[in-house]
Amino acid sequence: MTMTRRSLLGVAAGAAILRAQTEETPAQKRGREIAEKSIFALGGDGFSQMRTRHETGRAYSFYLEQISGLSIAHIYTRYVAEGTPIKLEQRQAFGKKQDDAVILTAASAWEVNFRGARPLGEERLKQFQETTLHDIFYILRERMNEPGVTFEHKGKDVVENAPVETLEIYDAENRNVTVWIHSSTFLPVKQRFKRWDAAINDRREEITRYTKYRESGNGVMWPHDVQRERDGLKILEMYADKVTVGEDFKPGMFELPPGVTVLKK
Question: What are residue 254's phi and psi, to 5 degrees?
Answer without folding.
Answer: -110, 25
